[in-house]
Give the backbone structure.
Amino acid sequence: MLTFAIAQQSRMDKLKNSFFQAYFRMPVPRLVVRTNFPEYTIMEVNNSYLETTGALKENILNQSLINLFCNPGEVTPERIKLEEALTNSLQTNEQINIEEFEISSLNDEADPVAWWQVELMPVAEEAEQPAYLIVTTRNITRHILSQKELHDAHHREQTLHEELAATNEELFATNEELSKTVESLKESQESLVTLNKELEQRVMRRAAELFKVQTDLIAQHQLLDTIVNEVPAGICVMEGPEMKMKTINNALLELWNRDESIIGLPLLEILPEIKTQAFPEILAEVYRTGIAYSRFEAEAELVIDGVKQKFYRDYSYTPIKDAEGNTHSILSLSIDVTERAIARLREQELMEEQSAINEELAAANEELATTNEELAATNEELNESRDHLQQLIREKESAEAKLELAIEAAGLGSWHIDPITKDLHYNAVLARLYGYEGQTPMTYDQAIGQITEEHRELVVKDIEQAIKDGGLYDVSFTQNRFDNGEVIWLRSVGRISKDELGKYTIFSGVVMDITEQKKDEQRKNDFIGMVSHELKTPLTSLNAYAQVLQAKAVKNEDTFGVSALGKVTDQVKKMTTLINGFLNISRLESGKIQLNKQHFNLDQLVKEYIEDAQILSTHHKIIFEPCAPVKVFADKDKIGSVISNLISNAIKYSPSGADIEILCDIKDDVAQISVKDHGMGVPAKDLPRLFDRFYRVESEAMHLISGFGIGLYLSAEIVQHHNGKIWAESEPGKGSVFHFSLPV
Ligand code: ADP
């Protein structure tokens, strides 16, 4: 503390104290301030301060120290520092130093910030409160700045050092990493080489696999192709809104009867007939919406080869889409189910029919109920009718009994043969006729066994024929009686009739004794034979005389006599032939016909008879188609008469001028002669009876042609006696062919 010696002086006086003045005027910037808190008003300022700060004395005096040193109004740490120091100095009355004070209120533009060392020294009377403060300042800015710079430099150096160390460390680390990286790079390179090799191998394997996959794919494609083509379903793909045919399998082509030329054509061009059917609209819908469509048993009408046909098919339309999901084609798949559909339709029809029937049945049921009532009524009537019927049956039985009686009375035997078992039933008359007295009933075989050998075969054949064809059975035959062996003539007439099932089961008939009749016929035959024989003798002498007379007339050149006697001879010849016919009949009937068999050439014989006939008839040309010479063993005259008869009939029943053709044929040990004419012919109904005795066709034309109906009968008998056959074919108005054959 600066203690002033002159205590009694006023304050200003004190300041004007020479000592103080000396002190104050020292070349150190100093200020004197009053201790009036809080202003600390500046009372004096020395020159050094003014020089150092460049301030004007009048601006500083009476100013607040605080406001001079600090920016007025701002509470800064420097202001607080200053105020504290001031307060402290006043309280302690001691000198207080502020070592470093940043002064900011100096208007030095070159050096806006300056640091001062500020020394605050209170000036007081002894034991009194200080009244002044001497404020001494020293500019330490340069020192502070250099110190700051030094510090900054130090700091920078340190930071640099640290950064360097850090960088170094990083570098080291990086280096290590690099060397590691290099190593791993090396390793990587090696593994890359290995990898490369492996990759190459893999690529090769993959290529091989791919090749195999490709081959498989081709095979699969072919397989798919085959499947698509062989599958019994129609498959096709149609493209674009026009449905252009893109792919189509064989099954569908076959169904449509088209070929691959339709590929690329729009569907409606291929099948215009479906325009009016549902398919085009459905296809358009599937194409538009991309939603698949399928149907069972769809009916389609297609025109195949110009013919409209109905098909039933299960089919589906599936859209085929691109990556964006837009439909570009449609896959159509269809299977023919026509049979199934027809069967189902038929079933449906049947069911409908069934239900119709059911309804009808219901109706019928009602009717039945009514009918039932009616039936009850009818039943009563029936009861009456039954009584009536029983009456009738009784009558019928009595009628049958009467018939039986009549049959017996007429001397007729009656018989019944079961066509299958040949069980025989007969009446008493038959047993009597047969002379059968056996204990057990006569069997069919027993009855047949009694027929004489010459007729047995024929009878059996006729019975079999009647059973087979259901025709009439009428046969005459001789048989030995069972009791005395006497030969009797019997005629059996029967018919096989159908039972209620329509089967021929009832074969029955009657048998009568015609022995007397036959004997009468025999007598007649004998008479004809005798008469014919007696007629022949005068005819022979007539013929002889006529010939003698003719020879004489020739000698006398009597031409009339020659021709008249020639006609007589011809007529005699005709008459002889007629008489011979009758004679032959009687001989035949009495079984006296005899065959004088010899070997001769049949073709030669035919030729001779043709020549004879040609001489007699000049109005017909007889053409002979000769065959290879054929030898037969037969009665030459009788076979001759057969040939002659057939030729003369052909002439007789043909208009004059019509040709007659005669053919000769040898086949399988049989010689066959055929005589063909272009005459009137024979109606079909007469053909089977032409060879019967005395049978002549009934017609107007026939009345003009004379004849007895014995020629064909005799011819047939002769041929049959030679084990040959004779038959005729004819077409009325066109002509006939008569054939006969002989075993060679
Ligand atoms: P006829 O000639 O004496 O009447 P046939 O026994 O020779 O007797 O002939 C029997 C019948 O067969 C004849 O009446 C005739 O109706 C018919 N007939 C035979 N041959 C022929 C023929 N060639 N053409 C047409 N009818 C024939």
